Amino acid sequence: MDRALLIGVSDYRFTKGPHAVPGKLPAVEKNLPVLREALVRAGVFTDEEITSLPSPDFAEAAQELQRVAREARGLLLVYFAGHGAIPSGGDELYLQLRDAHVLAGEHTVFNGAVSFSDLMGTVLVTSRADRIVVILDCCFAGNAARVWEHFEDKRRVGLLMSVQANHRIDAGDPGTPTPFTENLAELLGEEDGTTVSRLATRLRERMAEQKRRTMRKEAWEPQLRADAGADVQLGDGPQLPVLAPDGPGPSGADPGPGPRPRLPVWVAASWRRPRALAAKWSRAWRRKLSRTDRGGGKRSSRRILLRPALPVLLALGLLGVGLYLLLGPFSRDDTHCAPPLELRVLTDPDLEKTFRTAAAAYLTSDANTTDAGCRRTGITVYSAGSSDVVDALRRRTDAWQEPEGAEVNPQRDIGPQPDVWIPASRAEADRVLEEQDTDAVAELEPEESPLAHSPVVLAVPERLAPEALNDITGRPLTEMIDALTGHADDAAVRRPDPEFTDSGLLATVGLYGDPASVAQGERMVRQQGPPSPTAGDLLCDLPDDDAVDDRTAALVPEFLLVSGVDCEDNTRTPRWALYPADVPGMDPVFVRVRWDDADGDDDSGDDETDRDAAAAAFRDWLAGAGGREVLARQGFRDPGDGELFAPGRKPDGVKFAPSPLDESAGRDEMEQALSAYQAYGGPGRVLFLLDSSGSMADLWQGPSGGPGLLRQTLGGLGAEDEYGVWAVADTGDGPYETLLGFGRHGRKDAEEAVDERARVRDASADPHAALLAAFDEMEDRGDDGRPQMVVHITDGQHGEYLTGGRLREVLDRAGASEVPVTVAVLGSGGCDEGRPDQRIAEVSGGRCLDAGDDVGAALHDEIARIGTGDD
């Protein structure tokens, strides 16, 4: 019998207070009926074979998981949608049920949540299903992959995850299913029968077409883990064997040949499943269930787990031995492939796609395959903001290895401790080595030679190209921009975020030229709102408006003009590359990172020597023919002579061997450019509007309440920044009351003032009048180039104050003021498309945050972008 268990947690019991989950998820409520209908319509299950659990508590979910797993024989599908969480010191993923709450201190405890380890252990120990598919739709879903890797008996388990590791995702419109599940259901209905690997590929393609982004503003990429050769048929198409000859590996790539032929998985599992591992997960699950089950749960759980174990193992073992003796070498699998050592590779956000592609090719290469067809190494490629990575490797390595609190946690904000770092420039590694703490627990060993080269070019729209192409190389960047804008008054130039990706920082080196030219360089790339996070995002954002795309040049690495970007479409304006003489290029370099006391995992048996060997093998492959072939397809140049690796792939707008090109960036010029960018315009100005009306009464207390949220953001402001706080409630003397006058404040004094004076009023709020007054206030402060922002913390209940002509007046002022408005809505749906807060944030170039975001962290990031604080 095939069985499916669909768990969707939309309604949480603890959503307020210091130990609460982030909030309810109304979109998840729509997931279960939509997915159930899709699975039935596609012929994957009958309606009777599906069990739906809307918002169960821990005990109910645990019991149903065991029951359904025990009953399944053919296909078992387990689906979870809801809040996912990870502790501050590890990779484990916790799936939060209805009664979830968090206890944080020296250690983080997730009550009312099931760890993914326990879920895997339960289905492996309890179920006799031939094929198991686990689907996770939650924040941090990709973190389950690292747990999956450490289970030996996983060959029958395919794991489909909604997003890559260490990423939070938006639940979307509360009136529709979540974006991942909505696409999943649609794809199930598009064809008669599909496989899990094809489903994962189509999901990635669909999310890229929709330009979906995670909460870190990076591409939203569903992930798949399945053992080499194992794929699962879903639907009424022609059925695949239990283990197909070929199938997706950990990265979703074709794994190539493996040991063949193989026994069916249900036979192989009978002698390969380690009894000690099964007993470990059995005991852990029984202990957890016995604490939460009512009325004799401990006895029943023991009976459920142990009663079928002996006869099943005995029967399957005898059957396996019989088949082995009968079929002999024709079906013999001579080697049990142990889980490969997992190598963690951290890279620049603009390079993530390139090195994921390289890793996928390496995984199935001869260099990574034993004589028996087993993989030597698995590779996880991830990225994070370049300045954050440099800072963490300089000063935060101890917190990276052992996080002590929520404020500084590189494992959460960047990702796991890397074994390999591939920055886009050797200068980044030199910046770390020059100023690394003497007590750092990470040792960096950069290679001398870069892996490839890609110039950072001024990519000019075809309409402007005839005038611009008179001098393709040999001129400073600022001269090229002056010439471009001289030919077309409406021409503009954009650059990606210099703090997030090295391509933006390298372009900034040329923009500034010398310290006296910072203001001039920033005026050349001035735009409304924040810059695009990466060069790939920039090239994707421009076509959203044909008029903007047609007149805007982009400072991007040249390889993106050769390989293209994920959002490529027919309406994109063709671009031609200009090669500035003073802009250093991207020179990705391989850096081995060793961590003090980084003992190998007891289960995998690896140690530092094995990790060194794995890193060295990957480095040699990248620098050799295999790596050069991948880098050639991606559009990179030879680091020696600067010529394209694959000249046959040169598009019309790219020069084969441009000369002269600026040499690699120096450590000091990168450091100076970043410091100048961060200091440009002087200290920031922020005006906080705190909704203090009666409707905020239930959203006032605790760290996630209005005043608590405001206090959390003050760490992004420094002693030189100016800010003030208004309490927005109409008490008869005007639309607001001043809690903290505009000026410079010590953080402690500011927090005390908010604590003492902020209180809920028995009055309504008039955000229309308060926002207009805020724009007047910021305008009176003058236009001196200093960064400014208005922050509105509210419950989003504005009544008639932000409708019709009043809303139009606020939108007009917001668009004209050039002061971004960041709105933090303490509730769900406040930032849905077309809502007043969302429109105000969008037209002003700000950002709208609601329950779908981690509001505290996101708001702190927005403030830190304006202020000069460092915590």
Automatic annotation (TrEMBL):
<keyword id="KW-0472">Membrane</keyword>
<feature type="domain" description="VWFA">
    <location>
        <begin position="685"/>
        <end position="866"/>
    </location>
</feature>
<dbReference type="InterPro" id="IPR011600">
    <property type="entry name" value="Pept_C14_caspase"/>
</dbReference>
<dbReference type="Pfam" id="PF13531">
    <property type="entry name" value="SBP_bac_11"/>
</dbReference>
<dbReference type="InterPro" id="IPR002035">
    <property type="entry name" value="VWF_A"/>
</dbReference>
<dbReference type="InterPro" id="IPR036465">
    <property type="entry name" value="vWFA_dom_sf"/>
</dbReference>
<feature type="region of interest" description="Disordered">
    <location>
        <begin position="231"/>
        <end position="261"/>
    </location>
</feature>
<protein>
    <recommendedName>
        <fullName>VWFA domain-containing protein</fullName>
    </recommendedName>
</protein>
<feature type="compositionally biased region" description="Low complexity">
    <location>
        <begin position="243"/>
        <end position="254"/>
    </location>
</feature>
<feature type="transmembrane region" description="Helical">
    <location>
        <begin position="304"/>
        <end position="327"/>
    </location>
</feature>
<dbReference type="Pfam" id="PF00656">
    <property type="entry name" value="Peptidase_C14"/>
</dbReference>
<keyword id="KW-0812">Transmembrane</keyword>
<keyword id="KW-1133">Transmembrane helix</keyword>
